[in-house]
Amino acid sequence: MIEKNYQPADIEARMSVVWEDSRAFKAGRPDRRDAVPFTIVIPPPNVTGSLHMGHALNNTLQDILCRFERMRGRDVLWQPGTDHAGIATQMVVERQLMERQQPGRREMGREKFLERVWQWKAESGDTIINQLKRLGASCDWSRERFTMDEGLSKAVIKVFVELHREGLIYKDKRLVNWDTKLLTAISDLEVQQTEVKGHLWYLRYPIEGKTFSPEDPSSFIVVATTRPETMLGDTGVAVHPEDERYQKLVGKNVVLPLVGRKIKIVADEYSDPEKGSGAVKVTPAHDFNDFEVGNRHGLRRISVLDKEGCLDLLDNEDYLKGLPEGATQFAEEFNKVDRFAARKRIVERLESFGFVERIEPHTHMVPHGDRSNSVIEPYLTDQWYVDAKTLAKPAMAAVRSGETTFVPKNWEKTYFEWMENIQPWCISRQLWWGHQIPAWYGPDGKVFVAETEEEAVSHALGYYVEQEVITAEQGREMALDRNKREGFITRDEDVLDTWFSSALWPFSTLGWPDDAPEVKRYYPTNALVTGFDIIFFWVARMMMMGLHFMKEVPFSTIYIHALVRDEKGAKMSKSKGNVIDPLNLIDEYGADALRFTLAAMAAQGRDIKLATSRVEGYRNFATKLWNASRFAEMNHCAVPEGFEPAKAKETLNRWIAHESAHTTREVTEAIEAYRFNDAAGSIYRFVWNVYCDWYVELAKPVLLGPDSPAKDETRAMVAWARDEILKLLHPFMPFITEELWEVTAKRESLLALAAWPLQPTGPTPEQLAMLAAAAGPTDPLISPALVMPIFDHADFTDPKAEAEIGWVIDLVTQIRSVRAEMNIPPATLTALVLAGASAETRERAPRWTDVIKRMARLSDISFADRAPDGAVQLLVRGEVAALPLKGVIDVAAERTRLDKEIGKADADIKRAESKLANEKFVANAAEEVVEEEREKREAALARKAKLLEALERLKQAT
Predict the structure, then answer these.
(1) Which parts of the sequence form the motif 'KMSKS' region (predicted)?
(2) Is residue 446's pLDDT more than 90?
(3) Are 603 and 677 spatial neighbours (Cβ–Cβ below 8 Å)?
(4) Can the peptide bond before residue 408 be classed as cis, meaning omega within 30 degrees of 0?
């Protein structure tokens, strides 16, 4: 029995238990043993994370695909798991220690601290997994993995060692994003560019051999900088090779103010003659672009900052080298001064010597750590790198050949731009939480990379015996006794970048590098659903690692979804206070309503403007389905055993079978093409408009009438169509559909495992390719057999039934539209004249006269050769239907009203177009404000078009 009121929370809790107890989502179910696999790996959320709207969208779309393919008979593996999130997790635990006034990480020591992190992970690390379950994610939760599981750690170590052995992992001194608060290198993804109001300092650098005078421009060259403190590390000045102002100076030296170091003027296209003075200071150790300029011209790299962002001058051999004799006083005075305090003092000193030409206010972007909020420094340091350029070549080739395709396709351009300009990938992090780098250092600093410490010790002892650093006897003793080799080799303290382990996710989660049968069965995966912001950081790296180690692309399709913004189009952020919490929406409206909202708005390449009102609207949609199902139940609608909808005799029932088949094809094709919004829109129209508004309404006279074969058939058809709706809607709204599936017929089987209405008639080319790539027909896990439905109703069409019922619907709809446009009160009945009606219309109209009169608020329906004078004429499927309105409405007053409304629409259009024509407004206003004006203009134009149409109709009534 269906409850009177739809209560999402009750249903969600109950259905979650049902799915879990039945192991509905488990991959490799016995009944799917011979089915073709379908695999998706979840983008692993951070173990510290909480469900945000991006997660909600991403996982809703993945779940739609998985539930869809599961219903199509595939052996679905949606692989879940979480990421250890190195910096984020370490910060959480360190903050917790500080709040509890407990010893910090350094005081605690590495081993004890890591014990504490694992303890926190056990207690709080699964929060987001439980939240994903609340959303309805149908992952195989029995296979949940964690990037620091033993098996995944084994994969990480093997990959590192093999890449190092191949020369694709190496150690180098390069610039990295350095967080001076967390004291670690961080990835570009962890850097946020923040707009800051600062200054641009124009500095005079004296030209060697000339007597410097602030009044003599020929004695100096002017450079501009936003970071005067880094000038201490300048090793060059760059000018554009075609800049005539400086061509005679190229190759000469300037004398670095305050420091006295002589640095060369070089010609390089990096310098822009149109910006500032056209000359730029080059500080290779403190700027990424300068690093490249320095490499091109062989300039020295002098780092003048330490790890904590203080000047490091006094014991800095690189800095002191090349200074004039007795020039260390400045180094002594400024050594260990914080970078920002040093900036102020250095500018004061420069001004006192006349080296500052001018200072201008300057708003610019400054990189900040996304977690520490500290200003990030380009920092020259020894780190471990991956030769990404080499690994990127096959990854680019795979996309160019079509082995992997992007949806939407335009993201391929972004992928190629990043990959073609790829830099060495810094993979080391100065943290404790993460995969510790499997490298050990001997007493002379020689590196030994190995999968285990014992293996590293063996290599090291063999090497040092051969080099005669130790004797063979000492080597044997040290190999047998750990105490005797204590301190002889030490392990690298750094850990790997989190993206390194997540790059292996598509195959490490399946059991690689062990010879696990799941690797053979479920790799490569089918689709990856992710956001555009990690195409480079995650997607590209999975492509590189998958191709290198598995010799196959990790996924055939990459679906890139857009951002979820607020209802005005602004990006959600805590600072703006416009963040929408998906869990709050689930609490208020239910997970199904949120899921359907996100799917319905997920148009390819278009950001989602999320308004709470939309979620509320789709909760009402769920309520509509609930009430329609209750109506069916109350009228004893049920599908009898052996019922075949294709054999229905009643026109109305054949029509709903036709419409159901049409909708099934639309939804199926849209999901296959990743057009989630089109699929959702199609099922929405079918449920609300076709089934509830028309079919059930048109069926009511039969259902409420006397018993008859027509009534029996209609009862069966109402229930059958409802079941088809539940199947089509299930991937989008799993909770309510599973509940109604169970309570309407007390079924033993789950809707989640029921057959999709439209099944493939055989293996698709994609499936055949997967079968061919597998071990073959003798493989016990793979067989070409597919689960096939007994009846494929999506092939059913009935043009005759569609023509008749479609005519009724179009006629009633147009009459209602005219009544609304003309402000005809509901109580006022109007006549209808079918002018010049065809024999077909004359034959069908009497069957539906009572229904049309009731639904369109008509007093009479008659036939005539032509439309009477003063009647509004409607064209319904090529034939004229006329509404005589003389005496029914005040034509003059209605014309005045419409003219007034058209005037209002014109004013709105003019106002919006005026703003949009203002270049200053378009350039300076927030993106969402400009978009809002465009929407206002389009809405006003559409409103005016409808009003003009109504005005034209009104002219017919005069």
Answers:
(1) 571-575
(2) yes
(3) yes
(4) yes
